[in-house]
Amino acid sequence: MSDVVIRVENIWKEYRLGAISHASMTKDLESWWARMRGKEDPNALIDVTASTPVTSPLPSKKGSPPFFLPPSQPADRFWALKDISFDVKQGEVLGIIGRNGAGKSTLLKILSKTTTPTKGQIKIKGRIASLLEVGTGFHPELTGRENVFLNGAILGMSKAEIKHKFDEIVDFAEIETFIDTPVKRYSSGMYVRLAFGVAAHLEPEILIVDEVLAVGDADFQKKCLGKMQTVSSEGRTVLFVTHNMIAVRTLCDNCLFLDRGEFRFRGDTNHALGLYMTEASAGVSGSWSRTGECDTANIFFTSVKITIEGNQPKLMLICDMALEWVSNANGYFVALDVCNNLSEPIMQALPQATPFILDGPGEYGLRVSVELPPLIPGRYFLDAWVGSSFTSTEDYQRNIVSFEVTESPTMGRSYPHSSHHGFMAPNAEVICVKKYINRLSL
Predict the structure, then answer these.
(1) Which of 101, 119, 179, 317 is a Cys-bridge partner for 12, taking CB atoms 3.0 to 4.6 Å apart?
(2) How many Å apart are CA 113 and CA 121, to the nearest integer?
(3) Judging by DSSP bridges, how do beta strands 254-259 and 93-97 pair with one another?
(4) CATH level 3 topology of 299-410
């Protein structure tokens, strides 16, 4: 495998809906014994190899086996992963992105060997530490100290090696006061801090991290990202699943994009994120209407429509909103966030910082005019927020509508804009004065 530490070859994973066994002890034991020996499940009802090969509409490596479509499937079964193949090199930080249900967590569980594929195989060179969900690998009745030594032993480390790293793990997790308390009494944040500390500091060759970092606060997430960068700089490999696109772009060299269990793209992070956001926002247009009632808010948006007026670099965003106020309160106000193609807010429009919807329950129509800065060409999205104060949110709709900027705000620009230098190109002036200075020889 040379410098390749993970090789995934034609992985398929099938799940049964609403069942956890084959309804037969004999078949359950056969399946368990096959998994223990690393063999294929003899009771899998669908034989992938018996399917009819067809031309794949998805990109694949040269020389890879043909893409097989499974035969008609029973209603209680579905494919979580379909013919996934890729390699990961030593020291690479690979982001795995996709919408909910794309198969990301299933793939990580297979790589961590907590579940087995229905078809295909994986080859791994090195010791793996996995952080798949809060509390994975921890025994709730044991203390934090005991779980550190237990996890280290599972990773194959000696007691002396664990002792050498113990203080560093506890300092990182910031739970020194509670280290001798059973972890069943930990908060979710304490749990994940200790779990990440163990996974990252006990020197695995491969670190697998799922979305669990979302449990931690902002400081802890920043600390974890920094630790993963350190791990990769030491020549170790990181697989990282998250919906935080900023973290993916900051940390990952390359990305694997999955969609409904199928391989879509493997390569440059910016390209992968662009494809992901394009597909995720495919249904977003310049208008939006709520479907059904909202029972959780005192006031909520029922429709939003935007138009763009003017020409670069002076564009006006006109936003027409309809809201329904259903119960009494002191009043409400709205705010609009303009976001880039990765859903990162780049500016906020706040027409008034105090409530201005004041006349009591009923239906309201608002028109908000926003003078846009000189935006670079690209697609932008709008988040709409309504509340009675900055700390009290009633309705918050993300990526609700979108608009396209096609022209450059900079006249005479000879090369295309890039988001690497930001999303705005403000007007700038320069004065160049050439002075002649008499140099006196000493």
Answers:
(1) 119
(2) 11
(3) parallel
(4) Immunoglobulin-like (2.60.40)
